Amino acid sequence: MSQTDAIHAGHFPESNWGQSTVPVFQTASFSATTAQELSDIFTGQQPGFAYTRSSNPTTAALERRLTELEGGVGCIVTSSGMAAISSLLLGLLSAGDRVVASAGMFAGTLTLLTKTLARFGVATEFVDITDTEQVAGAIDAQTKLVLVETIGNPKMDVPDLAALSQVTRAAGIPLVVDATVTTPALMRARDWGADLVVHSTTKFINGHGTAIGGALIDTGHYDWSTSPFEHIRALAEVQGKLALLAYLRTATYRDLGPAAAPMNSFLIAQGLETLPVRMARHCDNALALARFLDKHSLVDWVNYPGLPESPYYKLAQRQYQGRGGALLTLSLGTRERAFRFIDSLGLALNQTNIGDAKTLVIHPASTIYHDFTPADKRAAGVSEDLVRVSVGLEEPDDIRNDFEQALARMES
Ligand code: PLP
After folding, report:
1. Residue minimizing CA distance to atom 15 of ligand 1
2. Peptide bond preceding 184 in cis form (omega within 30 of 0)
3. pTM above the 0.90 mark?
């Protein structure tokens, strides 16, 4: 994805005033000039907008931009990353279906599967997503999709997406890739075989921590007309590659109400314009910090796929344009030491977000994963002494100095 595309992709035909940014259409509903026109908009005979829970011009502009940047056939923008994932899973799956998913994913996705979807009769088999054979072995006749993150947050494991896509293609099921941590700036998931891409746009895509948002993109690889999803298959005759998105737009997404606020779509579209330049700097800063921490005597280990010592280094280099991303984790021996370290940081903020311009740290075991059992924490790669860092855009020396003084104070 080029910086030029990030700024110019997603042509905006709805307004002809020559504005340089996408305007905020802060309105719940839209007037039609005739009853026939509104009926035609409702029935899809005519393009247009009726009600912001289904679509809105500001959000539609962001959808067009994300579609183009991901090389997809269409996109639905949602109120959060979890809204994108839950709308997709609720739109696709039925009681009795199974999901094969990475054990090392974001806590919200894990509990969506283990708590909410399990109550509706959807079971999940959790696997080591870096072991493609294990993934293949976990798929059975009831399995309807495989769900992975490009870099597990916070496990930091990296799946071989091309190999996984061969497995899902052979099984006739879609590969769903949460690309929040890498973004289209590091990798177009479509090029590595992803069928569906989800993002929490709250993170690097927005980039400034100003709005919660999400997106689902259909890359166009998956043939819905031969899929095991009866309700989507029925639509494929008319809608073709857009069958899933059409189903969501006119059923699950419309009915559950996860629409994005227009103001948030504006903020996220604005953030997206600088994503490639920010992402390069995020990754440079993360690599510099990882190298410093890796050599520090008070740090037990650093987990960062951009370090040559990482078991995922080669794969990450290949898949993510020679970059390791902007997240890293470090182990400090005990929970008490991890707490003392976080409390001693000055520049880095103790927050539960990632992908902000500011460097953020968190102790996942006592926060995001606080209600997980010890075994489930272990499976997710969350130990009691682990600190996660989302490396920001500050001067690399300032970040390093802050971490250096916090490590020194941790000992005193
Ligand atoms: N996916 C990943 C990889 C995440 O890190 C997060 C949030 O941290 C989500 C999904 C959920 O996104 P949101 O907080 O926008 O709902």
Report:
1. 81
2. no
3. yes
